Amino acid sequence: MSISLYVNGAIYTMDAARPRAQAMAIDSASGRILAVGSDDEVRRAGDRHAQVIDLRGRTVLPGFIDAHIHLLMEAYRSHNINAGQCASEDEVAELVRQRAAQTPAGQWILGGQWYKGLWPGQQFPTRASLDAAAPQHPVALWSKDGHVLWVNSLALQRANIRADTPEPPNGAILRDGDGNPTGILQEQGATSLVYRVIDRHDPTLTRHLVEGKLRELQSKGITGIHEIEDNEAFRLLQQLRDEGVLHTRVQMILPRQMLPQLRAIGVQSGFGDDMLRLGGIKIFADGTLGSQTAAMLDGFEGNPDNRGILAIPEQQMRETVSAAAEMGISIAIHAIGDRAARVALNSIELAQRQLATAGSHGQARTSKLRYRLEHVQLIAPEDLQRMQRLGVIASVQPFHAVADRDLAERYWGQRHRRAYAYRTMQQMGIPLALGSDAPVETFDPLRILYATTMRNDTETTQRPPWLPNQALPISQALWAYTLGAAYAGGEEESKGSLTVGKLGDAVVLREDILKVPPEKMPENGVQATIVGGNMVYGEV
Question: Could you state, in order of their start, the residue ranges of all structural domains in the chain?
């Protein structure tokens, strides 16, 4: 047995039975915690061969669990064109022109992060500027929120999208006055027409980029993620796990389209091991605020006829949620607009009634089943009450609240006052899980915690906090980033707190996060990250 004794620390365990401790012992062979308590208590759990690590008074927390991230997309962000800082359509086109000069003709030019909210007029771009920049390359650039694809004429040609192409269900092809596609495709029904003809990623490059991104996650104190992507990511992560080089715990949330395959092999949520598990399926109920495709009960401010896009028909949503629940597969539903949240909750309530009717046998098969709404940016008060009653988890990304504040006020008007209502949710007893939604926003937990508790961004401190009554206390924010995220994944018995018998995953910070001035929180550097008792980043 190889035992590591971490002593002389200030440990916040997130365990209500023993919230503070001085030391902990971890068996690095099993990766489990053997003892938590005072230095003397923990030393007795070791033997003469135990490794003793002096924390020197550093603060220790359970490792952060990012409950919503897109790892491959985040990994490729640094490789593809990044238009996040571009202040106009022309600036993006110039990046494309530079990349085209270095790319063989006929190969795809890919990238994204463009945000029309930073541009003069805030209008959608067109294919014309991309055609001029790269006439010999198909170009596809995702918007910052990942729900709009901006393409050039050659990309439209390869996808066979023309003036006579019928409008896709659950998506939109924007057109000019003559009916010709402008180069803007909204939501999966339309974007998938191009996405399916884009050349696949080079597997060697993908692995290199993902391994580098996993190291970055570890440097930020992240020990686990809920990865929301497709089977390409799943296959790569299985390969890393099998080779023993996956040092970040992953729960995989797959697209709803894979539900028939999961049914065929009969797996349930929780299948896998401590490093890689099946979490569930992801369903898109709507689009986004930034693209004005979020599904709304009432139209967007200034455009009452636009109530957004339901990304899946309500009947199909109900059938999918019920089928997954009956199989014991957890369900995460992307819901940004209040109409999307209502449609999602209708489906969840129906599935819960059907399981209750099935009796104890059905309940036994679904012990790890979780229902989650992802984002929950705007929701009607009566539906918040329904979330509480149904036990639905709010999987939220607090950096959205500070990044979207101007958009929310512009497009939701007075409704923005009840948006991103994390404190209200917490006080109602709705379980919270925190995440990043990277690459849309930063995955740095300390910056996200600052946004959660201050309702501001470190880069815009000159602005007043936005809706500060919805800020979470730091203790509640930490719970949602650790035990709350573990609960969202059905793993609260093995993760999320520093408790005897649980996995020995922890982050060591330079200063006490509960005592440091809030404005200094993002500067409270990660000194070390521990996974299963082994230090995977830094030193103390």
Answer: 1-63+496-540, 81-195
Q: What end-to-end distance do the CA atoms of the chain give, in Å?
A: 23
> 399, 377 in Cβ contact below 8 A?
no
| Tokens 């937990």 found at | 445
Question: Can you read off the two tokens belonging to residue 293?
Answer: 């495709």
Strands 10-12 and 172-175: unpaired
Q: Is the dihedral of CA 168, 173, 179, 183 positive or negative?
A: negative
* Cα 356 versus chain centre, distance: 30
82 three-class SS: strand
Domain covering 81-195 assigned CATH 3.40.50.720 in the classification: no
- CATH assignment of 1-63+496-540? 2.30.40.10
Contact residues for 206 (Cβ-Cβ < 8 A; gap 6+): 72, 75, 76, 232, 236
Query: How is residue 197 written in tokens?
Result: 């003809």
Amino acid, single-letter form, for residue 210:
V
Establish whether the linkage from the previous residue to 439 is cis, with ω within 30° of 0. yes
DSSP 470-524: GPPPHHHHHHHHTHHHHHHTT-TTTSSS--TTSB--EEEESS-TTTS-GGGGGGS
- Kindly list the distances between the CA atom of residue 159 and the CA atoms of 106, 124, 239, in Å, as whole numbers in the listed order: 14, 20, 32
**Reported pTM:** 0.90
Angle at 388 between CA 370 and CA 416, to 5 degrees: 105
Structure tokens belonging to residue 455? 């309702």
Q: Would you call 279 exposed, middle or buried from its count of C-beta atoms within 10 A (0-12, 13-18, 19+)?
A: buried
Phi-psi region of 272 (alpha: psi -120 to 50; beta: other; left: phi over 0): left
Reading across the β-sheet that carries 32-37, which strands appear in turn?
A: 32-37, 23-27, 3-7, 51-54
Angle between helices 338-358 and 314-327 (to 10 degrees): 40
Per-residue pLDDT of the chain (540 residues; tens, 9 = 90+): 589 999 999 999 999 999 999 999 999 899 999 999 999 999 988 877 889 999 999 999 999 999 999 999 999 888 899 998 899 999 999 999 999 998 889 989 999 889 898 899 889 999 999 999 999 999 999 998 888 999 999 999 999 999 999 999 888 999 999 999 999 999 888 999 998 898 878 889 899 999 999 999 999 999 999 999 999 999 999 999 999 999 999 999 999 999 999 999 999 999 999 999 999 999 999 999 988 999 999 999 999 999 999 999 999 999 999 999 999 999 999 999 999 999 999 999 999 999 998 774 444 455 679 999 999 999 999 999 999 999 999 999 999 999 999 999 999 999 999 999 999 999 999 999 999 999 999 999 999 999 999 999 988 888 999 999 999 999 999 999 999 999 999 999 999 999 999 999 999 999 999 999 888 888 889 999 999 999 999 998
